[in-house]
Design a protein that fits this description.
21% strand, 4-stranded parallel beta sheet, 5-stranded mixed beta sheet, Ubiquitin-like (UB roll), 3 domains
Amino acid sequence: MKPYRANFRFYEELNDFLSPAQKKCDIEYRFDGQPAIKDPIEVLGVPHSEVDLILVNQRSVAFDYQLKNGDRVAVYPVFESLDITPLQRLRPRPLRMTAFVVDVNLGKLARRLRMLGFDTAWGNRLEDREIVDISVREKRIVLTRDRRLLFHKAVTHGYWIRSDDPDTQLAEVMQRLDLYRQVQPLRRCLECNGEIEAVDRDLIWDQLEPLTLRHYSEFFRCRQCRKIYWEGSHVEHMNGAIRDLVRP
């Protein structure tokens, strides 16, 4: 039997990572030595990238705090929409220039985020190691259905998507990260994530159908893949979909 014990309590959606017997209650954790507090948190099943505040005996601590016998530990999720400046955040400030890297199982979510104007990297052949590298190199928030990915020590900002439904997934992300004021519809290419810019019709007339040229005068083109967009009925449909998607 390990000689020391500490009590842990996890709050809000961090309970999603716990077994039914551990949810919303005190958890006794037995240990020896003086482990960094990050270790028992992850042993209990909670990725460090989902944690933004730890209170030990009502005092905020960092991940390298060494657990002591009798400690009472409260663990809170990322506070993207609240200011906890007086306390010790466990990561840099929230990534307010919001950009995402999305795992291979979330392609429909990636398209919806791009529709709302969010810079969203996604590829159907991205390996976990590549996702982590992109997240670190480009300062992107990892969105994933694979909670194991969020345990990687290099990941600082991440969110485990709970739902299987793409629209519900988007609502999760919008609410959890408080993104409603950052929506800029139709700024990103749905296919490649490139930025869309206005283009003179004289430069692209040979790529369009005669009826399109006859009925529309304003055109846009992706800087990256060169896909052409215009304000046809599909844009009206997308605008209606956007209003539904971003409703708090």
